[in-house]
Amino acid sequence: MENSQSPSFLFLADHPVLDFLNTVAMVEGQRTDFLQTDGQVLEWLEQAGFPCSPDGESPHSTLKDAARNLRETARGLIAQRKAGETLTTESMNRLLAGTSSHLQLVATPEGGIVLRREFQGEVAARILAPLAESIAEFIATADFQLVRHCEGEGCILWFYDRTKSHRRRWCSMNVCGNRHKVSAYRTRRAANPE
Ligand SMILES: [Zn+2]
């Protein structure tokens, strides 16, 4: 069931780590944070492919703040990496050190067996741990030539350019790409009126 309270998150970056940064976006000229509640954080994680183990610990009173903190830490590092600057890794490393994990063999009701990674630590840190690890891996291993900021005016979205030609310029052709086409057309028209 669609929850009418939930915003529709943007999944256009072609990488979940950059989609996570894009939970802050410009909406009608306003900087808008799509992670307003703990429930929205859980929903984003689910949609992005980081489902939390359903162990029923509900009061994640600090989850939203922890998620925003992780996101802005990631944003800083990704911007530094993109700019070729020296990375300030302390905050990220502190977040990564907030949990530890081990593998467990878990029997399924169908009689099968699956391998599951269990995290220990404070609830919010545990819920965010798989995402935090993905962020760290991304920063260490992504091809930053392909990590780009949308060229749209005022747009703050990031994407990973997986196109064959590696010439992607826009978060979305429908939004910024189209706006650019229209404004280029207007400029041409103004320069060459009929
Ligand atoms: Zn854009």
Task: Write a structural description.
Strand 3 and strand 4 form a beta hairpin. The strands form three sheets. The chain has a two-stranded antiparallel ribbon with strand order 1-2. The longest helix has 20 residues. It contains six helices and six strands. It has one domain: Orthogonal Bundle (Jann2411-like fold), CATH 1.10.3300. By secondary structure, the chain is α+β, with helices and mostly antiparallel strands. It binds zinc ion. The site of zinc ion (ZN) has 8 residues, from helix 6. The site of zinc ion has 8 residues, from helix 6.
Low-confidence stretches: none
Element order, helices and strands?
A: HEEHHHEEHEEH
Main pleated-sheet profile: 2 strands, antiparallel
From the helix content, strand content and strand pairing, which structural class follows? Answer: alpha+beta
CATH topology title: Jann2411-like fold
- Fourth CATH level, the homologous superfamily: Jann2411-like domain
Bound molecules: zinc ion
Helix proportion range = 40-55%
CATH class: Mainly Alpha
Domain module count: 1
Question: How far is the N terminus from the C terminus?
Answer: 53 Å
Number of separate helices: 6
DSSP strand content = 15-25%
Residue-averaged pLDDT: 90
| Strands, total number | 6
Outline: elongated
* Strand arrangement, major sheet: 1-2
CA radius of gyration is 20 Å
CATH architectural designation? Orthogonal Bundle
